[in-house]
Amino acid sequence: DAMVIQNPRYQVTQFGKPVTLSCSQTLNHNVMYWYQQKSSQAPKLLFHYYDKDFNNEADTPDNFQSRRPNTSFCFLDIRSPGLGDAAMYLCATSRVELAEQYFGPGTRLTVT
Amino acid sequence: GQNIDQPTEMTATEGAIVQINCTYQTSGFNGLFWYQQHAGEAPTFLSYNVLDGLEEKGRFSSFLSRSKGYSYLLLKELQMKDSASYLCAVRDRKTGGFKTIFGAGTRLFVKA
């Protein structure tokens, strides 16, 4: 089935140790998004790609970076995770920016 | 600025009807989405409104009034599996494209 896949589902990293979360999609959608969601809060958009065009949100810390090497894959790099970065990270895709988004299952990041 | 308000929690009885309200303030409204999110899972798309009026989809309906900055999600014939958070999300036009802003969600508890 066509879907959005995130690996790993659970990630534990140490304070300050770089970590990469991955997302892949078989939907062939043009747009890929990364959201951060903390407990009982709304998903917060970090950035998105429209094809290869990168769109960063103004309030996304520089500690968060992203790469999209091809249509199918998108990565979230956290260069120096802090305790406050512990959250669920959701990847989503949409055919175009105007369409509904399809979410992956998320990666729950723990920072020790 | 941008602001989305939803009630934090609601409780309803199995078989009943429940209405979840959402009010929003945006500078460049371009559509409103409702998503369902079960605890620990990713959001899933329920409905989309861009014009005023009611959109019906099985047991779920969504209403929009752009002049009032108001939407509601109506769930009929409630089932226990409908216990989840319901996220209102507004697409806002911004320089260079669009951005989807999520509300914090309404946690719905369905009791027998």
Helix and strand topology:
The complex is a heterodimer of chains A (112) and B (112).
Chain A: E1 4-7, E2 10-13, E3 19-25, E4 31-37, E5 44-50, E6 53-56, E7 64-67, E8 73-78, E9 87-94, E10 102-103, E11 107-111
Chain B: E1 3-5, E2 9-13, E3 18-25, E4 29-37, E5 44-49, E6 53-57, E7 60-65, E8 70-75, E9 84-94, E10 97-102, E11 106-111
Write a concise synopsis of the structure shown.
The complex is a heterodimer of chains A (112) and B (112). Chain A has 112 residues and is mainly β. Chain A contains no helices and 11 strands.
Describe this structure in words.
The complex is a heterodimer of chains A (112) and B (112). Chain A is mainly β. Chain A has no helices and 11 strands. In chain A, strands 2, 4, 5, 6, 9, 10 and 11 form a 7-stranded mixed sheet that branches. In chain A, a hairpin with a 5-residue loop joins β7 (64-67) and β8. Chain A is globular, with a radius of gyration of 13 Å. The mean pLDDT of chain B is 93. Chain B has strands at 3-5, 9-13, 18-25, 29-37, 44-49, 53-57, 60-65, 70-75, 84-94, 97-102, 106-111. In chain B, the strands form 2 sheets. In chain B, strands 2, 4, 5, 9, 10 and 11 form a 6-stranded mixed sheet that branches. Chain B has a 5-stranded antiparallel sheet with strand order 1-3-8-7-6, with no helix packed on it. Chain B starts with a strand and ends with a strand. Chain A binds chain B through residues 40-45, 50, 55, 57, 90, 92, 97-98, 100-106, and chain B through 4, 30-31, 33, 41-45, 48, 87, 91, 96-105.
Estimate what percentage of residues of chain A fall within beta strands. Answer: over 45%
Order of helices and strands of chain B: EEEEEEEEEEE
| Structural class by helix and strand composition of chain B | mainly beta
Give the oligomeric state of the chains in this entry, treating copies of one chain as homo and distinct chains as hetero: heterodimer
Overall outline of chain B: globular
Report the helical percentage of chain A.
Answer: under 10%
The largest chain-to-chain contact, stated as pair and per-chain residue counts, equals: A-B, 20 and 22 residues
Order of helices and strands of chain A: EEEEEEEEEEE
* Global geometry of chain A: globular
Q: Unreliable segments of chain A (pLDDT under 50, ≥5 consecutive)?
A: none
Overall radius of gyration of chain A? 13 Å
- Tell how many strands the DSSP assignment of chain A holds: 11
